[in-house]
């Protein structure tokens, strides 16, 4: 049997737009994660190695766990509106962002006035542009950037390899998430051979939990609830519980570590009202045949089959009921 060809073709219009232009503006999405940071920084370093100019920014602060990455200080903290005024660019690059609500806090979204290139692996991507490469077969956007740099015949340096490894390890959960496939593993091996710092990526992403973060999981563990049929679990965190903690926990971290790993269940969720009247939720699947994006989409969210999220402009009590209603609806249809 022939090995799978990991060098897949990038759509010609996307490739052409990058080859024929010299300056770019790109972002890391709101609440920047390893894939968003790593893929954006890797593409910047790659394009700049062949003489192009790439400005990168984020409306939120880049988290400490990414501080070891090369040239991480190149991310400006800026709004989309200000970035468009400050930086002169031929093309706007959107990576790993399924919708404008992940790019900017501002509504309405400022007009770009320049072509948009959309590169993403989320199946529910809603950014409308003729220059789009959206393909959910990839484990991460970093994996797509690997292919793009290969098509552009750009040398992957140890620094670029580290950024790409960071993105791939982040979105595959260090190869424990259900989106991990043979191509993810092959590409990671190539990047490690090219000098990517696999060990440091692994340490920062999987072995660097803050003490206060773990302490803040106590109420989430106490509130852990098993559904009556045993098929799923969920936990909640109220504003009062958050106020009693030294640190407000990151629900995504708790979801990754606990929610998607409980024996006998199909999936889990964690809901927290960190801002008054606004509840965020994180969903994790335990089995490949359980697609949690089906739940997220009913709650105006999105993501991947194995990991998804949502944001409801409702207090926790109402949001929890909406979540339970969505699950019940999908269960009656036999979809989860």
TrEMBL record:
Signal peptide: none annotated. One of its GO terms (molecular function) is nucleic acid binding. InterPro entries: DDH_dom, DHH_sf, DHHA1_dom, Oligoribo/pAp-PDE_c-di-AMP_PDE. Coiled coil: none annotated. Residues 251-330 form the DHHA1 domain. Residues 27-168 form the DDH domain. This is Uncharacterized protein. It comes from Candidatus Chazhemtobacterium aquaticus.
């Amino acid at each position: 049997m022939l090995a799978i060809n990991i060098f897949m073709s990038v759509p010609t219009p996307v490739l052409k737009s990058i080859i024929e232009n010299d300056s770019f503006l790109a972002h890391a999405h709101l609440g920047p994660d390893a894939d968003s940071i790593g893929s954006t920084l890797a593409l910047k370093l790659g394009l700049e190695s062949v003489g192009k100019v790439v400005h990168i920014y984020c409306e939120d602060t880049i988290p400490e766990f990414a501080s070891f990455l090369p040239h991480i200080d190149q991310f400006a903290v800026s709004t989309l509106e200000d970035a468009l005024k400050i930086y002169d660019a031929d093309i706007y690059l959107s990576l790993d962002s399924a919708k404008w609500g992940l790019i900017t806090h501002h509504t309405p979204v400022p007009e770009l006035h320049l072509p948009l290139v959309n590169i993403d692996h989320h199946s529910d991507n809603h950014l409308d542009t003729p220059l789009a490469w959206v393909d959910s077969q990839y484990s991460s956007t970093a994996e797509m950037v690997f292919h793009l740099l290969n098509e552009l015949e750009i040398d992957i340096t140890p620094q670029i390899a580290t950024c790409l490894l960071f993105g791939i390890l982040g979105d595959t959960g260090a190869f424990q998430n259900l989106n991990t496939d043979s191509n993810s593993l092959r590409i990671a091996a190539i990047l490690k051979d090219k000098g990517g710092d696999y060990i440091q990526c692994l340490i920062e992403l999987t072995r660097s939990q803050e003490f206060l973060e773990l302490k803040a999981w106590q109420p989430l563990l106490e509130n852990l609830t098993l559904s009556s049929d045993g098929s799923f679990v969920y936990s909640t965190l109220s504003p009062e519980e958050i106020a009693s903690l030294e640190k407000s926990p990151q629900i995504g971290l708790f979801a990754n570590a606990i929610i998607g790993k409980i024996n006998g269940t199909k999936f889990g969720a964690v809901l927290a009202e960190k801002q008054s009247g606004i509840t965020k939720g994180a969903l994790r699947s335990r089995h490949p045949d359980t697609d949690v994006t089906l739940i997220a989409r009913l709650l105006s969210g999105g993501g991947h089959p194995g990991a998804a999220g949502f944001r409801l402009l409702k207090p926790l009590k109402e949001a929890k009921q909406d979540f339970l209603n969505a699950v019940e609806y999908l269960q009656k249809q036999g979809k989860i």
